[in-house]
Known about the structure:
The structure is a single chain. Helix content is about 30%, strand content about 20%. It has helices at about 30-35, 95-110, 125-135, 165-175, 190-200, 240-250, 265-275, 285-290, 295-310, 350-355, 380-385, and strands at about 5-10, 10-15, 15-20, 40-45, 45-50, 65, 85, 115-120, 140-145, 180-185, 205-210, 215, 220, 225, 230-235, 260, 280-285, 340, 360-365, 370, 390-395. Strands 3-4-8-9-10-11-16-17 form an 8-stranded parallel beta barrel, surrounded by 7 helices. A 4-stranded antiparallel β-sheet has the order 6-7-15-12, with no helix packed on it. Helix 5 links the parallel strand 10 (about 180-185) and strand 11. Helix 3 (about 125-135) runs parallel beside helix 4, helix 4 runs parallel beside helix 5 (about 190-200) and helix 7 packs across helix 9 (about 295-310). It is globular and about 75 Å long. Bound molecules: flavin mononucleotide and iron/sulfur cluster (2 copies). One of its GO terms (cellular component) is cytoplasm.
Amino acid sequence: xxxxxxxxxxxxxxxPIIAASATPTWNADAMKRAVDAGFGGVVAKSLFGDSASTxxxxxxxxxxxxxxxxxxxxxxxxxxxxxxHSLEDCSPFGYEEYAEDIDRAKGLVGERGAVIASISxxxxxxxxxxxxxxxxxxxxxCEVNISCPFAADMGLEMGAGAAGLTPEIAKVVDRNLAIxxxxxxxxxxxxxxxxxxxxxxxxxxxxxxQARISGIMIDIESAAPVGWGSIGGYGGPYxxxxxxxxxxxxxxxxxxxxxxxxGVWDWEDIVRYVMVGxxxxxxxxxxMLRGYAVAGRWLRGITGWMExxxxxxxxxxxxxxxxxxxxxxxxxxxxxxVHVAVEKEKCIGCGECVVSCFYDAVALWGGKAVIDRDACDxxxxxxxxxxxxxxxxxx
Length: 395
Ligand SMILES: Cc1cc2nc3c(=O)[nH]c(=O)nc-3n(C[C@H](O)[C@H](O)[C@H](O)COP(=O)(O)O)c2cc1C
Ligand code: SF4
Ligand code: SF4
């Protein structure tokens, strides 16, 4: 049986999969359900400071799904590329209730799962206050949410709007918090690595990379935003590549552990995050759409795959892909001696390749695709698009 346990900033996790701060971790009972289902840890919903207590009351309803029901196979087959748009700012609890809830969660899960508090202040004084709240609890660790995608739009000096203050915030938290903390970063900054380095230098024990982006959707009949009328958190499994890019860039530049988050949908995505350097991996959207039981499926998937490969410990895979990532400058260009060809027996004459070939290199003859090698650019679009796998790359 492969060893899935990891150490994350001094906190032992029986496996690296953490339920991210979101609705599935909104209170102690919810956090217990996540740990019962197999998650190695939970990040509680963020506690905002009293100055942002508006965020403790959400618009209702507060979730919109785009591209979910619209998936042709729905409901038997679930879409992978959909958007979850939401405005669920923070924990509904005030300071005392939050502290009590964290303690209740720890009491319920014990050593089976790490309970990670999450805080977001709007001034340095408020960050100190929030550290005091967490210090009075049994939390194993704390996430410092400098990444909320819509806090700035609430007029608050917090979340993604405070990304420039990351080192100062990390310093205040480092001075005031008694347990390890991970700074949760937003990708909505010009230089994520610089922010990550700043947080590390200021005393962060770990980094959580990266939060969702913000977005808005317009209903064309009313010319108004869909839902509650403002921007909201915007994301989905399609952000996986964005998250992997962020983690790979940060993990190779810092010495503290990184927790990967954004876009996880299947167990392979968790392995992908580990391979780009993540010590632990979080998920919110997949838990919300697939339920807590997804943790068991992911654990079985990872375990079975590792057994098949003969891998003994997941920590041995950490960063395995980093050495294989090259800079865009170093990519091999215009390689010689490659071309594409259609396997006639497999071609069903659907024409998908024809509509997406911008070099006039493919046409249907007698119901089969034929490629003009002189015109073909070997761009690869038909290879990717063909529904039957009839197009092959030949060397
Ligand atoms: C409904 C919802 C509520 C969220 N609430 C919080 C929060 O309170 N604090 C926080 O740091 N992140 C919050 N997040 C962000 C998630 O923790 C996570 O970073 C993000 O959704 C990306 O991961 P995913 O692609 O697995 O969903 C929330 C996300 C969703 C969907
Ligand atoms: S590889 Fe690109 S250029 Fe060549 S036939 Fe396919 S789509 Fe056209
Ligand atoms: S997309 Fe594939 S199956 Fe369809 S016409 Fe082209 S080669 Fe044939």
